Amino acid sequence: MQKTPYPTGNNVLTQPTSGSYRMFRITDIPDVMEKKEGWPVGAAMMRRWFNSPAYTMSEDVKAGRTGPAILSPDRIDESIITMKWARKYQRFNSAYHALLNGSWMTTPGIKTLRKCVLQSKPSPIHKQWRLGNLALAGKYLDEICQVNYVPVGNLNDPLDDFYAALGQCNLKIAVTGVVTESNGGHKIVIDEVGLYIRDTYDFNDGWFPFSQPLGFWGFDGVERSIQLAWDVEVDERYSDEPEPAGRKYAVQNDDFRNYRARYGRGGDFVVFSDVQRVQINPITIDL
Description:
Layout: E1 3-4, E2 12-13, E3 21-22, H1 29-37, H2 40-51, H3 59-63, E4 76-77, H4 83-86, H5 90-103, H6 107-120, E5 128-131, H7 138-144, E6 146-152, H8 161-165, E7 169-182, E8 185-201, E9 213-218, E10 221-223, E11 229-231, E12 238-239, E13 249-252, H9 253-263, E14 269-272, E15 276-286
Parallel strand pairs: 1-11, 4-14, 11-13
Antiparallel strand pairs: 2-12, 3-12, 5-7, 6-7, 7-8, 8-14, 8-15, 9-10, 9-13
Helix pairs in contact: 1-2
């Protein structure tokens, strides 16, 4: 991405004066999402990040190696993203129906199911029990009966509310059913599944040698095409002239990290949607 230094000169001020105009700032992006682009969910996600105390998510949390159930409540959001909202988008629905129709029953999926069954046995004397409880939240299902997932979204998707809120996420499937143990083996009759979204909201770049571009933003909206643009400002700046119509600012992940370092605000968080439960025709699987 080609960026130019933020404009300086006598007409750019750090404090407002009579008749001055506030210039575009990184914290304006949520309002642009909601009021100009019509993306209320994406705006809510970013506002939550800006309104949270500074917190940088570890790679273990991001990758799911640290169980979400042990994270503090302020580092998990379970209210903004809903399955009803996500199912408005065709790319999400395609993944949803694929999992619901049995695409989760891969070799890794069955292996994970077997592990869940063995861990769920109430006691050595039990020969029959029910695996899972889909009344629980996704952060708990992750630990007890989630058996597979499918990634949804890519960087070439249309710019819409789903892209702004989640970009790329995982749609997960958990199962419940009656387990029977006999002759050293196990059989499960699955009669219900639960589908839910798990994602992380952060501005980490991981091992990439450059910061991920997030589009070209201004008061009148966002564009994706590569262009010469001002470097977005994390501080407030004022001008004695209004910004030219259509002026855009290049935004990258590291701009949000710079804001966090400067102001002590900006908290990464793990995202879970509600769980959509679906009763299915019973499926018997020998493990």
